[in-house]
Predict the structure.
Amino acid sequence: MIFISKITFEKITNKNVVQRLTEYGNQNPETLVDVYTTKGKIRIQLFKDTPLHRANFILLIKAGYFNRALFSRVAKKFMAQCGGSYDDLQKAIQDTLGSYTIPAEMSKHHFHKKGAVAAARDYKKNPNKRSACDEFYFVEGMKFSDLSLDHYEHENNYKFTSKQRNYYKNNPGAAHIDGEHTVFGQIIEGFNVVPKLTNVATDSQDWPVTDIYVDSVLIIK
């Protein structure tokens, strides 16, 4: 685990987030990571064309933020969400890093396929759909019909490409949140782990009855 000195680390804010994460990303170019969860290992490829989200994810890994981070929301055939400052370790690291959100880096090139890795966000008072800095999710997903895709286009004021439509009609994903969250990575190994994370007993808020963790995250290259 790598700890960041509170004395030397200048906190990240919404005013300096682009500059700070751009600089950090240039110095830390890694894109391949292994996430060890209670239910198994997942290998992720981070996208270079979402540079702020990639840099932020690497920053949190190197700060040790995800060690014993909780899955705070899981939903069958949808997704498993991890992160948030729920214990003393995460709170201390977040206090050192600063309080900030990340500008959206959405594109129709990266959408909510099975195994997509994306950033959670606040839906209130967030017209620019900025991402939370400390919460991400893995997509499990389900298939969608043309009728349901038409519905979500109208509901979300979003237009699916022909590639997206073809994918969602034949493969599982989370089409209903395209255009709402930044997808910044993709699972390349360990797809079978995500259903193990989501297929558990939960309370009324989708919080697992028995805690599920990210035990550790290892940067490969």
